[in-house]
Amino acid sequence: MTLYKKILPNLLVNLFMQTILQTPRLIIREFIPEDEILLVELYRDPEVTKHVTKRTDEETKQKFAEAIRDYIIHPGLGRWGLFNPEDNDFIGVCILKPADSDPNHIELGYVFAQKYWGKGLATELTKALVNYGFEQKGLTEICACTNPENIASQNVLLKAGLVRYGNVFWHGSDLPFFRITKPS
Q1: Span 75-102, mean pLDDT?
Q2: I want to staple 160 with a disulfide (CB 3.0 to 4.6 A). Which of 29, 58, 100, 126 is the partner?
Q3: Taking a C-beta distance cutoff of 8 angstroms, is the pair 108, 93 a contact?
Q4: 8 Å CB contact between 28 and 125
Q5: Three-class SS of residue 35?
Q6: Are the C-beta atoms of 112 and 82 separated by less than 8 Å?
Q7: Mean pLDDT of the chain
């Protein structure tokens, strides 16, 4: 009986976990409970979090729990894990969801483990998320913001077709604001 109590919940979660989309080098999927430690370890790296909101392990775990809860509240939108299709290695995290700072806007964002920087994955991801948002979810606008010093991410957003529209006060800071609207 104890074995079933341990196995059954994980089987159910894995059964209902969705792959959102896949690109040639990325699997974008919902997190499962076992992935929590991956997110915590990602946010422990000071270089990785140099341009994003700093969080304690407990705050990261809270965001993780909210992500799993939000899969039900906002189906097909959320905070997802990024995995390598060749070996299932954890690459990072991305979002395409109502913005915490302004739920009337859908925000796109990402954080990658250092070993995956500089490989064009952020551009590949951003283009795929924009396409998914417009074609699969019927979104008409997608927004993003970056740390003012994060020129690399600003360039990624521009390469993916987003346009800079001044600054916005999101995430407790005045940040460069980007958006893209669905072509008519």
Answers
A1: 94
A2: 126
A3: no
A4: yes
A5: helix
A6: yes
A7: 90
157: which 2 tokens?
A: 């957003």
Gap between the Cα atoms of 100 and 140, Å rounded: 19
Nearest to 132 by CA among 87, 163, 95, 81: 95
pLDDT digit string, tens, across residues 117-172? 999 999 999 999 999 999 999 999 999 999 999 999 999 999 999 999 999 998 88
Contact between 176 and 148 (Cβ < 8 Å)? yes
Q: Is residue 53 predicted with pLDDT exceeding 50?
A: yes
CA nearest to 141, candidates 182, 81, 80: 182
Q: Name the residue with higher pLDDT: 118 or 3.
A: 118
Work out whether strand 27-30 and strand 106-112 pair parallel, antiparallel, or are unpaired: unpaired
Would you state the structure tokens that stand for residue 8, as one six-digit string?
């059954």
Beta-strand runs (E) in the chain: 19-22, 27-30, 78-83, 90-98, 106-112, 141-145, 163-170, 173-181
